[in-house]
Amino acid sequence: MVALEALNLEEVTLRRRDHLHLVPSSYSTATFRVGSNLAQRRAQRSRVLQRRRRVAALLVSGLVLAFLFLSSDPSVPQATGVLSNSSALSAGQTYVVQGGETLSTIARLVNPEHPSIALASLEKQVGSSVVIPGEHLLIP
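Request: output the structure for the sequence above.
Response:
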């Protein structure tokens, strides 16, 4: 009876430690190695990472190109160019009005010597003496 009780205690302790297994000393560690060697696994991992980097670079460049394509404003002529706060305004260019600017300050940028001539043509183009920030003006 004592032997049965000892056997039962031994089974209980073995059940609690199911993750521990006794391995006979006759086994060699080579029998447990399965798979490719380390150099092959590193080379394969390097190829996978390189492929991921290429795909990520292609996605980023595609998104940038799509953003640039979609953000171009078709209402602004591309040949004339858009200027803002530039002192070298010439005829035929498009000027974007900034906050705090008036027609007289823009006329002084266009023709510093005789701003009244540029002011008259700008007022004629706009139809009033008031400009709104962000408005596009064609320089006379």
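The beta strands are 82-83, 94-96, 136-138.
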